[in-house]
User: Fold this.
Amino acid sequence: GGSAEINGGRYSQLVDPIHKVGAVLDSRGFHPGLTAKQNLKIMASASQIDFSRIEQVLELVDLASAANKRTKGFSLGMKQRLSLAIAMLGDPEILILDEPANGLDPLGIVWLREFLQKLAGEGRTILVSSHQLAEMQNTVDDVLIINKGVLVAQGTIKEICKGKSLEEAFLELTLRRSA
Assistant:
């Protein structure tokens, strides 16, 4: 285990955490018998967020047409989008995403890339943990490479890759240190 600080402090110390940090750590965190909108209402109510924000986040993640469908019938991609909607309820400055492209089809991956780039373009900080290195090379600006819990490289895509693919750079950096 480890710890992370947000603007110099622990998450538990944040005054208004839902407006500072949104996270997608697992796309199974909602009730399958409820609709997308009902799941969002529960989260909004618990966080004292106005229900008008629900429509906004459903539009943001392209789930408005499925708002009144039960989530048990959702594809993995739809569940990922609903998780992103929940993370965006508080309109956070920082997003933390664990393997957000898992289970997405090619169109879903392109959508996710454009979605993340749009949010980053708004000035948000987005931290993505992913094993899909080729996709990350097309999506992110800066990279941290961690091997067995140790930070082995940090920099821009250009600095890390040095004309190679991110996968090649990753393998060089991690195999060299593992040997």
In short: The first helix runs from residue 17 to 20. Residues 11-140 form a domain with the Rossmann fold fold (CATH 3.40.50.300). The chain has two domains: 11-140, 141-179.
